[in-house]
Amino acid sequence: MSRLQVTNLCKSFGALKVTDDVSLDVAPGELHAIIGPNGAGKTTLVAQLSGEMRPDSGRITLDGRDITRMPMPQRVRMGLARSFQITQILPAFTVLENVALAVQARRGSSFRFFAPAAEDTGLNGAAMATLREAGLDDRAGVRASALSHGEHRRLELAIALATEPQVLLLDEPLAGVGGEEADAFVARLAAMKGRFTMLLIEHDMDAVFALADRVSVLVYGQIVASGPPDEVRSDPAVRTAYLGEEESA
Amino acid sequence: MTDAALTGTAGRPSAMSARVQVALVLFALFALFPPVVIALDDPFLILIGTRILAYAIAAMALDLILGFGAMVSFGHAAYLGFGAYAVAVLSSFGIHDIALQILAAMAVSALFALVTGAISLRTRGVYFIMITLAFGQMAFFFFTSLSAYGGDDGYALSQRSTLFGMDLLRSNTVFYYATLGLLMGLFALCHLIVRSRFGRVLTGLRENRTRMQAIGFPPFRYQLTAFVISGCLTSVAGVVLANQAQFVSPAFMSWHRSGELIVMVVLGGIGTLSGAIGGAVAALLLEEFLGAVTEHWRLYFGIFLVLMVLFSPRGITGLVQQIKGSRR
């Protein structure tokens, strides 16, 4: 059974079909990449999968359970976490607090009014472990707003990991990250492979073809090709619709 | 890198305890006030002091949702009214015990906050402000038309509340200290709440609602809980005010009063608790002194407020931090 299944998903903004009859199957442990030119509707697709946006029609199931109309927080508690293309953090909180709050969302009640959360060793321990995984443990006490862009992207990933997900929706985790930092990030994602089911939206083609088990190509809201990276790369429709465009650009 | 990390961890707890220090200094000053009043031989001042303490409680309770939860309630005077009328109504039935009156005030406030909060929280920003104002006005007009308790004219109380059957609060000085005790207790409570797991969720929702939903927190239930807590605590101030004035009237819950509470919180510095207490002191002292000098005191108070917001957006708390910082 597929872990995440999308069937005939449609979403329109007025006359514009942003998601046009999209169907997807992501198997457990698989890293499925979605590529496509700007404006292809990738982020809108993630928004529907994560529950931020309601599709007009179609069905989304997680482990066979219909989640199409489920609100975002409930999906997260079922193990579906996402990272954002535009970093979404709590700027006045420290790095550790950002992650500890994500741990808190999964562990125990948040209707506790008296014990100081900052001294909760259960929360802090788990948060530190996640920060270590994201390579941010030496920045734990820094205010999140003071981090560099690359560190923000890593914090974004750490927060998603801290919710203990089974399925990770990664919306351009490498956006704006370059050079060695990008290589390190790709290595981190590669190390995570198998532990999570991942749906990766990414512009960085090197990263996509290095990481993905399968690649789907989204153009004007439609999936025009889907398959193993090599197959997709040599697909003539893809070359004209997308990769060719990149090369000539 | 490590240096920054160290100052980061070291900086925040000390900033937190700095707020407690400010509060402790304020409490010490409050405690020293009655002897000064006796020395000045002006007993009326002690009643002004009690009024300031009551508003400090209300402003602090409002700060809990305004400063920490980014919920700007423009109807919080309603809870002052519930507190005041709990005293009036219960004492007219011969129940004078202040603990029971506070309990009743909190129960009514919790119910009102639960219902109006559940509706108001469907909106955000300016709409939230407007809808809380509308509910506040509904409460105001309800008590205006409550003729059994004087309606518009208000209702004079026959006596102060009692404490466990004893007439301790009859003395203005004892009543002042009892109010100070309430303020300190409620400050401790609010301080615990904002640092707790719940407080973190509330502050997180202020910081970034989308992020909080994306890690699994549905905002509504946490914001509504905070709204109810804030309403309940504000009503305690109403119980004190009724006793202070020995009189209740719908004027306690007019929308001007709600605005004044917001001014106190903003003046003191939002999201600090101790700032709200300082803001209440500053606003009411200015009202007393400017009011004694000129009848156009609101004009001067307005100018002061504009200058504060322009030059110290973080209120008195921000100003104190700036002065401390420049001295180093």
TrEMBL record, chain A:
Q: Which InterPro entries match?
A: AAA+_ATPase, ABC_AA/LPS_Transport, ABC_transporter-like_ATP-bd, BCA_ABC_TP_C, P-loop_NTPase
The chain positions of domain ABC transporter read 4-245
Question: Which parts pass through the membrane?
Answer: none
Say yes or no: keyword Metal-binding present.
no
E.C. number, please?
3.6.3.-
UniProt keyword ATP-binding present: yes
Provide the alphabetized UniProt keywords: ATP-binding, Hydrolase, Nucleotide-binding, Transport
Q: Name one GO molecular function term.
A: ATP binding
Q: Which domain of life is it from?
A: Bacteria
Task: Give Gene Ontology CC terms.
Answer: plasma membrane
PANTHER family recorded:
ABC TRANSPORTER ATP-BINDING PROTEIN (PTHR45772:SF2), CONSERVED COMPONENT OF ABC TRANSPORTER FOR NATURAL AMINO ACIDS-RELATED (PTHR45772)
Name used for this protein in its record: Lipopolysaccharide export system ATP-binding protein LptB
From TrEMBL, chain B:
**Pfam families the record matches:** BPD_transp_2
InterPro entries referenced in this protein's UniProt entry, alphabetically: ABC_transp_permease (IPR001851), LivM-like (IPR043428)
Which spans are transmembrane here?
Answer: 20-40, 52-71, 77-95, 102-121, 127-150, 174-194, 220-241, 261-285, 297-320
Lipid bilayer topology: Multi-pass membrane protein
Q: Which UniProt keywords apply?
A: Cell membrane, Membrane, Transmembrane, Transmembrane helix
Recorded GO molecular functions are: branched-chain amino acid transmembrane transporter activity
Where does the protein principally reside? membrane
Cite the CDD domains for this sequence. Answer: TM_PBP1_LivM_like
Concerning PANTHER family, the annotation shows: ABC TRANSPORTER ATP-BINDING PROTEIN (PTHR30482:SF17), HIGH-AFFINITY BRANCHED-CHAIN AMINO ACID TRANSPORT SYSTEM PERMEASE (PTHR30482)
Name of the protein in its database record: Leucine/isoleucine/valine transporter permease subunit
Tell me what organism the protein belongs to: Palleronia marisminoris
